[in-house]
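--- STAGE predict ---
source: upstream dedup step, 1 unique chain passed
mode: sequence only
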Amino acid sequence: MFIVWLVLATIPIALSLWALLDAARRPAWAWGLAGRSQLTWVGLTAFGLFLVIPGMAIATWYLLRVRPIVNAVEHGDLRRIDDAPDQ
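--- STAGE serialize ---
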């Protein structure tokens, strides 16, 4: 039973850590062209490491809504810039 709880406890931390590292490694120019703030998202995901439920929500929002836009811009697809007004 301890193993199950340990695995369940590491999922939010792993998700937040993945979002934090992904946001930090994206180049600043891609964030700028995407109209998003890298500092905001790195800060939010870092803050989310300390809070379970809000941290999972922040990381999930970043990974599903913000990351695809910044990733597309980083790879040259400027059509994705106006898809969502997420800052």
